[in-house]
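Encode chain A's predicted structure.
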Amino acid sequence: MDKLELGEVQLRFAELVWHNAPLPSGELVKICERELHWKKPTTYTVLRKLCEKGLFKNENGLVSVVISQEAFYAAKTERFVEETFDGSLPAFITAFTSRKKLSAAEVEEIQRMIDTFRKEE
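Encoded structure for chain A:
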């Protein structure tokens, strides 16, 4: 998971790839030029680094996703809960809800998740 740590610039780039992939690398260069004001070498450097981290692949000029945005953020959240709350989801929820009240819809959604989990046991 350490290799999935991204800086702010890499994360902005990754979100562009997740939103547009699969796409030709030349098209990615154009998107990065328009959205991030990057030159071609910068795009390819950041792409290479994120391919080395295993997030994306660039084969024959086609950039595709290896780790989805959802999987990336799920792993990042899991790591945060593990490091900050000793892996305790209830401790995380307690801390989260101590400052932000949940709406009725959020409570209902969480209850559905719990009910689904219980059925799968």
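The mean pLDDT is 93.
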